[in-house]
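Bench notes, afternoon.
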Amino acid sequence: MNSSLYGDKALFAAWFVAFTSSLMVLFIGEVLGQMPCLLCWYQRIFMLPLPIILGLGLWLGDEKVGRYGLALSLFGAGFALYHIAIYFGMLPETIQPCTATGPSCTDKSQIFFGIPIPLLSLFSFALIAGLSNLSLKE
């Protein structure tokens, strides 16, 4: 199998996950009316540019665009891991950023289809990072 074709398939899959995740973020916020917490906003900062960057890379045939997908998704995954630690009570309340203003990072609204939103976010970022890395293999 041609390695460029293999890279293109991985990059397309990374774009698809990023696009779908971005649509879900907008659906949860705009259609369901769920206000994002502070950590959700930080994760959105790293998720929402991914479909645009990866899509442009696919369209222009940039074989190295996966490195941008990898970088953005790793930073987003870091915020998601931090959010998960707060959600499951692994961090003390004194270092929780969502208690001052806005929605809580740990309340029942942080669940979508029975799964905590930070966990869904981490899964998406990890999948995008893995696929972006695969697209860079020659």
